[in-house]
Write a structure and sequence with these properties.
This protein has 413 residues and is an alpha+beta fold. It is 31% helix and 14% strand. The relative contact order is 0.23.
């Protein structure tokens, strides 16, 4: 997704009073029970992940695999800061970028099953200023076929992210950037990943519920699933709850806009350890909001993606509608990938991924085998432009399925 490049897709919920605001420390660390013995695939996979971490200069990562047939495996890699410091922990908080889209989409689908909105309703019924809004349906917002310009592809917007990283963006400002540019295509005629769609979806949710998007997530997802370590921070809150790794990025938002890869000389310097990624942890993510502003942990995301894909958040009819909505999207390597109502399919797995400055993440669940895969990394992209979480996910898919199911690059970049 460009700039949450929000993360490529291809290839989550009761906040306690003390943890309700992003940036406040959580006094008690999240606990989990490790498997007593490592599964057969773990040794080779561990080595592969360590190589990916080294090759891409990734400071830290959390991998959590749940597989009833092949065995569960959870492993942390690296440290919370570049060059040392405390090791990354399983319960660490990470920004999860575009995985947030599945949450926004879920709430809108819940409102549809309650009869408060129709999936075939024109967007203009709720947001009359949208270009082609009388022809764009709610479905087309969620399945990335609206044609609306993606504000996060705008160069001036990215320059503002670089020059004023603490700026608190308002949804209206993001839409103004998008609406000033012509649409990519007539609604429903093609696929183009656009954060603009989810900003509109978030505003419609607030319009229909009479509350904030944060409240809707809490009441409809976070609370019912018991995801106490997952949150959508308020716009002015640029913090991440403790414990968390620092988030890093090579290059700038502008320099990586058209091509996330560093120039060859800088790639060589990074490989030698002479060029380090910069710390962008405290950059305000308000510009991502409903498209990619959430924060979570590996254990919470495992629970979330299992419910997301397994029908724990929608009634059976709406869940079927969601999964049936997925249509193939083109990838450079012709991978088996599709996008639907704010959800991605890669082979037999469903989920999403996320890329936001400082972090890259991946979540997926296979309803047939009940395999779940979570990858959280503290680097936006490697020196060569690679998405580290997606690269690790590719290695995991190879270990579990004997083939890669995560295309590269991600079609949501």
């Amino acid at each position: 997704m460009r700039r949450l490049r929000l993360g490529g897709v291809v290839l989550s919920l009761v906040l306690t009073a003390s943890a309700g605001a992003c940036g406040q420390a959580i006094s008690e660390p999240q606990r989990w029970t490790a498997a007593p013995t490592a599964p057969a695939y773990a040794t080779a996979l561990d080595a592969q992940i360590q190589k990916i971490m080294k090759d891409m200069s990734v400071p830290g990562a959390v991998v959590m695999i749940t597989s009833p047939q092949q065995g569960d495996w959870t492993k942390t890699f690296g440290t919370q800061t570049v060059g040392g410091g405390a090791p990354v922990a399983v319960g660490d908080h990470f920004r999860i970028g575009s995985n947030t889209k599945t949450m926004t989409g879920t709430v809108l689908l819940q409102l549809a099953q309650e009869g408060k909105i129709g999936l075939d309703d024109p967007v203009s019924k709720y947001q009359p200023e949208v270009p082609n809004g009388d022809q764009i349906t709610i479905t087309q917002l969620l399945d990335m076929r609206s044609g609306l310009y993606n504000y996060s592809e705008d160069e001036q917007f990215n320059a503002r992210l670089d020059n004023d990283p603490g700026y608190v963006w308002k949804p209206a400002e993001l839409l103004a950037i998008a609406f000033a540019k012509p649409p990519y295509f007539p609604p429903g005629t093609a696929f183009h990943y656009s954060n603009t769609n989810l900003i509109l979806a978030g505003l419609i949710i607030e319009q229909l519920t009479g509350g904030t998007l944060q409240q809707a997530f809490q009441q409809r997802i976070f609370g019912p699933l018991g995801l106490s370590r997952t949150q959508l921070p308020e716009a002015a809150d640029a913090g991440i709850p403790a414990p968390h790794p620092q988030g890093y990025m090579f290059g700038t938002n502008v320099s990586t806009l058209a091509n996330p890869a560093l120039p060859p000389a800088e790639q060589a310097a990074a490989a030698k350890g002479e060029l380090k990624p910069r710390d962008v942890t405290d950059s305000n993510p308000s510009w991502a909001w409903a498209a990619g502003g959430a924060i979570s942990t590996a254990p919470d995301l495992t629970r979330y993606v299992t419910a997301l894909v397994g029908g724990g958040l929608l009634d059976p009819a709406m869940q079927k509608t969601r999964l049936d909505s997925i249509k193939p999207i083109p990838t450079p390597d012709n991978a088996d990938v599709g996008y639907g109502l704010a959800i991605v399919k890669f082979g037999p797995l469903y989920g999403h991924d996320g890329q936001i400055p400082g972090f890259n993440s991946f979540m997926a669940h296979d309803p047939a085998t009940r395999n779940s895969v979570i990858v959280l990394t503290s680097l936006f992209a490697g020196p060569g432009g690679q998405q580290p979480a997606n690269a690790i996910a590719m290695a995991i898919m190879q270990a579990l399925y004997g083939r890669s199911l995560v295309p590269t690059p991600s079609p949501t970049r």
